[in-house]
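Thread: "does anyone have the structure for this chain?"

Original post by V.I.:
We have the sequence but no experimental structure in hand. Need at least a predicted one for the grant figures.
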Amino acid sequence: MDFQYGERELKRKCKGPDVAELQLRLAGFRGTVPDGDFGPGTERQVMTFQSDFMGVAPTGVVDRATMRAIDAFAQRFPIDFKALKCRCGECDGFGKRRFKGSYIAGKPKVEAFHRYEYPGVHRMLLWAARAAFFYLPQHKFVVSSAYRCSLDNQQHGRSSTNHHGKAIDLDIPLLPGESKRDDMLKCDLIRGRLVETAHAQIGW
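Reply from O.Q.:
Generated one for you, tokens below.
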């Protein structure tokens, strides 16, 4: 029997779409693949969230209190979806679902070169961004670039596909008196945090 997220307590050996949803929502807390199988990686996610965000002794069990805390986490770090939309003026903000199964010519047929315009920004990415906001409260983040459809790429001479729903760019504006070196140090700090807590990878 498949359960919807929030219908049952989740712990080791649970399987189903509700586990996959949990894994997605905790993407920034020792992220794991959202495969719907509650194993040691998912337990580590839960324990990290309970310890770091909730400030309680971690159990690795997703009870009602933990689910309420995940909801509170989302409310505390809202996502401005207007800032995520494509600015081409032609699509609805998230492409037109063009080029599914089409890849950049001369490149391997892997996701990095898949030209498909996904109908939105991957939710796992947004949950991981929330965790970055949580772990680095000393910085003010702004979305510098989000969805860019094929037409927007054409208008600006780009061929990349990472912004077809698979990436967003975050920036931390420089404070008065800060230099380009300060900017680079901040970027390195953010990358390091995402690698550590979201299991992100440098490069594609």
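V.I.: this helps a lot. The first strand starts at residue 142 and ends at 145.
O.Q.: and Residues 74 and 130 are 7 Å apart (CA to CA).
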